[in-house]
Amino acid sequence: MLRDLLHFGRAYWYLLALCVLWYSVILAFRSTFAIKYFQHVHGLELASAGAMNSYVFLAAMFATPAFGWLCDRLGRYAPLLAFGALLLPLALAVMALSNWSLWVSTALIGVSFSLVPAVMWPLTRRLVAPQRFGTAIGLMWVAQNAGVGGANLLAGWLNDSAGASAQNPAGYEPMMLFFGLTSVAGFAFALMLWLTAGRRSQEKATHAPRPDPEPDR
Question: Which of helix, strand or coil describes residue 207?
Answer without folding.
Answer: coil
